[in-house]
Design brief:
Length: 334
């Protein structure tokens, strides 16, 4: 347990989709005192209509000095470039930092330089914040790199099976067909996310070049083919995952392994052969995982669903905060 009753919290990037989700939930967290809500730049402060009667004060201009001086924990829901600049510096000055950007998710210096060229060696320990996998390490982490939304769904589904040797490593061919709502692209509008481009359509993007593929491969220790798609939904991720099973592995072995892996994980729900849907997890911190097996040692199909703004961003960040400070893991999330 912790020695705090209420943690002084600052949120940077509080006007973006993930930032608004953070502020909406942390404002009602029983052990949080939200001291600062800031934007991601030095622009003028403004009020956020979606937060009326939740946070009626203006969201202020970004100020790293105030975050360092006035908080015990800082959530960074800011662009990678800003997180790379201020995240380690804030952590060295005292607050625990939970970074929702991708700036420090990749451990390989070469991979990080390729996908996040502004992210130098942070010079202090960084824990990859997939709560279910690194729960024990979070307590002492000065800087937590919150996972990406696509990797969260993929790793939670696959990692226990790979660790248990249930996936055929002699002929690995793991394919992750992922589909995300438009909010996953962030709040800044682009041609790709314009209503008239997205509505009534579905499009693949980032084939063989998406930075989340490197993140997934890092955590699985296995090469994958990852193809993300943009679909006309505001939120949610559904991933259909294809893998070849090791000899003799059947559906019961998959069930036993996943049940053992997530017996103490309140936000992973196993649905077995009843394959989950985005509407089952929308606005929640759950990851729902279902599966079907063609035949023992044959083809495995898994479906993993999350809300990209909750379990894929703000919710998982709060889950990491709760574990890091010794609170009940579910606070602010149910």
């Amino acid at each position: 347990m912790n020695n705090y009753s209420r943690i002084r919290v600052g949120i940077a990037g509080a006007t973006g989709y993930a930032g608004v989700e953070l502020l909406r939930r942390l404002a009602h967290h029983p052990h949080v005192d939200v001291r600062l809500a800031m934007g991601s730049s030095a622009s003028e402060s403004r009020r956020v209509p979606a937060l009326k009667r939740i946070w009626d004060a203006p969201v202020e201009r970004f100020d790293a000095d105030r975050l360092a001086a006035e908080t015990d924990a800082v959530f960074l829901a800011v662009p990678d470039t800003l997180a790379a600049e201020v995240g380690p510096a804030l952590a060295r000055r005292g607050p625990r930092v939970i970074d929702l950007s991708g700036a420090f998710r990749l451990q390989s210096e070469s991979e990080r330089a390729h996908f996040y060229p502004h992210s130098a060696d942070p010079g202090l320990p960084v824990i990859y914040g997939l709560t279910e996998r690194y729960r024990k390490e979070l307590g002492a982490a000065p800087l937590i790199a919150n996972p990406g939304c696509y990797p969260t769904a993929a790793i939670l589904a696959l990692q226990p099976l790979i660790a248990a040797g249930l996936i055929d490593r002699a002929h690995p061919s793991v394919i992750i067909d992922a589909k995300s709502g438009v909010s996953g692209a962030g709040k800044t509008p682009t041609e790709r996310t314009h209503f008239s481009e997205v509505h009534g359509s579905i499009a693949a993007y980032g084939v063989f070049s998406h930075r989340h593929e490197a993140e997934i491969e890092q955590e699985l220790g296995l090469d994958v083919t990852f193809v993300p798609h943009l679909v006309p939904l505001d939120r949610g991720i559904l991933e259909t995952i294809y893998a070849r099973l090791a000899s003799g592995v059947d559906a019961q072995a998959i069930e036993r392994t996943l049940e053992a892996a997530y017996a103490g994980s309140p936000f992973v729900r196993l649905t077995g052969s009843d394959l989950p849907e985005i509407k089952h997890v929308a606005h929640t911190n759950y990851c729902d995982i279902g599966w079907r097996v063609e035949k023992p040692g044959g083809q495995l199909v898994m479906v993993s669903c999350i809300d990209n703004l909750v379990k894929g961003a703000a919710g998982q960040a709060i889950q990491n905060f709760n574990v890091a400070f010794g609170f009940d893991e579910t606070l602010g999330l149910n």
